[in-house]
Amino acid sequence: MHNYLYVNKLSMLPNIYKEVEGENRMRVVELHPSSKEAGDRLARKDRAAFSVAHARSVDIISLNSEETYQSIVGFGGAFTEAGAHALSRMSAAKREEVLRAYFDPNTGSRYTLCRTHINSCDFSLGNYAYSEEDGDYDLSSFDISRDRELLIPFIKDAQNLSNNGFQLFASPWSPPVWMKTTGEMNNGGQLKPECREAWALYFTKYIEAYGAEGIPIWGLTVQNEPQATQTWDSCIYSHEEQRDFVRDYLGPRLKAASMGDVKVIVWDHNKDEILDCAEQILSDADAARYIWGVGFHWYAGDHFEALDAVHNLFPDKRLLATENCQEFGVKFGSWELGERYAHSIIGDLNNWAVGWVDWNMVLDETGGPNHAGNLCDAPIIADTQNDVLHYQNAYYYIGHFSRFIEPGAVRIGCRVSADHLEATAFKNPDGSLAMVVLNATEDAAAFTVSDGTDSVDHELPARSIATLVLRDQDAWGD
User: Fold this and answer.
1) Active site residue: 30, 225, 406, 459, which one?
2) pTM
3) Is 183 exposed, middle or buried (0-12, 13-18, 19+ CB in 10 A)?
4) Is 225 a catalytic residue?
5) Which domains does the chain have, with CATH numbers?
6) Closest Cα to residue 469, out of 458, 461, 477?
7) Is 323 annotated as catalytic?
8) DSSP letters of 433-468?
9) Which of 162, 166, 188, 278 would be a feasible disulfide site paired with 103, CB 3.0-4.6 Å?
């Protein structure tokens, strides 16, 4: 009974049509599954009526559209020089296929929130900065020509495919060498105190330069992983240093440059320390007035309760998953990869995250290139030797959210009576409801979705995920 909704077909249920604004309409559930054994990958499998039919399962997912939480900004991934380089080694047709896979409004994942790097990151071909001239405090040498080679064309081609565009935020991994206490971009180090004003100016120069390329910058994170000394591009900030930099330098500089609408995001590191960071930075009202939200990564574990705690203390600040990926190289065919994505996305969304951003959208067959050997996985792997694309199941799993939960969607009440199922639900701006359900167990799971009045029954196969979309349907529609 896999992938079957336990109600009669629409043509057999004329009695459940409802009058809505003088027209015959009914509420319809569309099913979009992906499963390990059945081989389904997001395609619509069935439609059924959401009706007063008797529930067949003891496991209930209860929806309450009157109980509302945060509004969604979007879902997406990151544009990196490594990803752009991998695509540059593929045929034009395969490069186009990847871009459409993520940004085509009809057949793609419909990404609406993406990230990129300021200066180099580990997923660059090597260290570089936009100002390499020692002591150039007024940044007269600032130049993004390196990005024009691979990175900017990657972003602009995605813009041209995206129907309504996407928001783009940018993160630095390290300031230029001459601004660092260690005199190198790799291996940690700190921003020299005398360079704080120039570094704040650097952000505005970046926004101006990208804007001139037709790429608006929606947001900035202050520093990628500010408490990790990495063998690649990295820079250390204490919470107090990050607070003071935003309050005294970055915030005022953005405001003076008429860039106060650019979203400033602090932390951009693991969830295990997010509460301590938020308390120390956001408790300072002068710093907090410049800050839109707090970014986080998944590498230290779930810590969903920490997100809830931050929201409760600072409900006016947003929480955003800014980077997540499978470490240690490519895991071809790993079903656990997609399940890790879905578990994390559901947990983060159910604890106030307003969006979820993957790391590299595409990498080569090695999980790179990465100039520090920090190879990772990606939802699409480009075999540059054979001009073949490998779609990891993570691509489909994140698509269960990005394709159906739209910007502006509001999370609604969604309670699951069964421990073996995970779920989240949203009301889209058009009034439709989108619910994602994950079954990561080795057994099929039957359940009933109910809003207290109407219901529908469904069974998820073992190791599967499904998006159920509930919308009004014309009685004589298809």
Assistant:
1) 225
2) 0.93
3) exposed
4) yes
5) 10-70+410-474 (2.60.40.1180), 73-402 (3.20.20.80)
6) 458
7) yes
8) EEEEEEE-SSS-EEEEEE-SS-EEEEEEPSSEEEEE
9) 162
